[in-house]
Amino acid sequence: MKKLIPVLVGFLCICNSHAIMGQAFSGPVLRKIVIDPGHGGRDPGALSPDRKLREKDINLAVALYLGQEIKTHYPNIDVVYTRDKDVAVDLDKRGTMASELHADLFISIHVNSARKSTTVAVGPETWVFGGDRSQRKDDSYDVVLKENEVIKFEEDYKTKYEGFDPDNPQSMIVFNFQKEAIMRQSRILGSCIQQALREGPLRGSAKDRGMKEGGFVVLAYCSMPAVLVEMGFINSATDRRILGSADGQKKIAKQLFLGFENYMKTYAENGKYKEQKIGIKKASITTYHVQIAASKTVLPSTHTVLKSYPSIKHIICEDHIYKCKYFLGDFINAVEAQNYCDELRAGSHPDAFVIAIKDGRLVPVNP
Ligand SMILES: [Zn+2]
């Protein structure tokens, strides 16, 4: 991957007529970022066991440090907060605000908590909007339910979120309208941020909690690449020491900044994610996915696999008998794809395996 970076940056310099000379780099230009400190006001978010440490305060502190870091290094980028003090903001307003402001990126900041007091969970995880795992009811899906259920604090939530029941993940499907181009950029942003967080003070355990997809209401309203970060666990004493100190919060913000910067310099695509091509040819990168099925012909939309996974994709390899390969997930590194693969194998796809795609064809996973 490393050797591709100069090629990509060089190419974009030539093609990008909007490049502003004199900036720290001359890759794609991001003009506006919306930072969303989760919860606030009457909604404290997750609480420490002694209830003294509140998620809403940690989120706000880290968000402000992150914004400051971006303003210091990139004064041309406009940083907007969904809240910069302890007030309640409805979930739909957060995403809608970013969309109305024509923001280029949206980062929602949260702190995790394990529902079961026996679970010793630690470390960061990063989420993007997606439906791949909407069928799952495991521990990690709990995060989606927990972050969505704050809409119950909103008085008119039943009419506002037309038919969405925060206790029923299946009803999330009505929100599943993000464009594929945006979802793809979100996954890349999520990978960059998760990687940077893992190198910061909240490393987590040896097994990376990774980048995941879930039906978050706050992300569903975003029309730009958007991620939701769960920095660490408030009920883990290890994580709490870092989350609860100003020094720890600054260090986490620094890692978020590095993840953002890596994405912006290397992977961000120009333009407002319009349907039409905008004349910028993407440099070819290898992406990693998990194949769960293959068939001789394209499966009908009524097939169980397609119904279970509305966002499943396929690639056609004409020289194979089972030429249609159906796969889930979209990662820029093989390790993350393997983590996702392990989860699928442990569940209903024991035969799942990682594949790599470059320029629209299968390539060896470890060349
Ligand atoms: Zn939260």
Beta content comes to 15-25%
Number of helices: 11
The top level CATH class name of the largest domain? Alpha Beta
The structure class reads: alpha/beta
Q: Which ligands does the model contain, each kind named once?
A: zinc ion
CATH architecture of the largest domain: 3-Layer(aba) Sandwich
Overall morphology: globular
Q: Strand order, main sheet: write it out.
A: 2-1-3-6-4-5
What's the helical proportion of residues? 25-40%
Please mark out the parts with pLDDT under 50 across 5 or more consecutive residues, or reply none.
Answer: 1-26, 132-136, 271-283
CATH superfamily of the largest domain: Zn-dependent exopeptidases
Radius of gyration: 20 Å
Count of all domains: 2
- What is the number of strand segments? 11
Distance between the termini: 12 Å
Major sheet, described briefly?
A: 6 strands, mixed
CATH topology of the largest domain: Aminopeptidase
The ordered H/E elements are HEHEHEEHHHEHEHHEHEEHEE
Mean pLDDT: 81
Précis, in short:
The chain is α/β, with parallel strands linked by helices.
Outline the structure in words.
- The protein has helices at residues 4-15, 55-73, 91-100, 139-148, 157-160, 180-198, 217-220, 237-243, 246-266, 304-308, 334-346; strands at 32-37, 78-81, 105-112, 125-129, 211-214, 226-233, 287-295, 313-316, 324-331, 353-358, 361-363.
- With 367 residues, the protein is α/β, with parallel strands linked by helices.
- The chain folds into 2 domains: 30-266, 3-Layer(aba) Sandwich (Aminopeptidase); 287-363.
- The chain has a 6-stranded mixed β-sheet with strand order 2-1-3-6-4-5, with helices on both faces. The protein has a 5-stranded antiparallel β-sheet with strand order 8-9-7-10-11.
- Helix 2 (55-73) crosses helix 9 and helix 6 packs across helix 9.
- The structure holds zinc ion.
- Zinc ion binds next to loops.
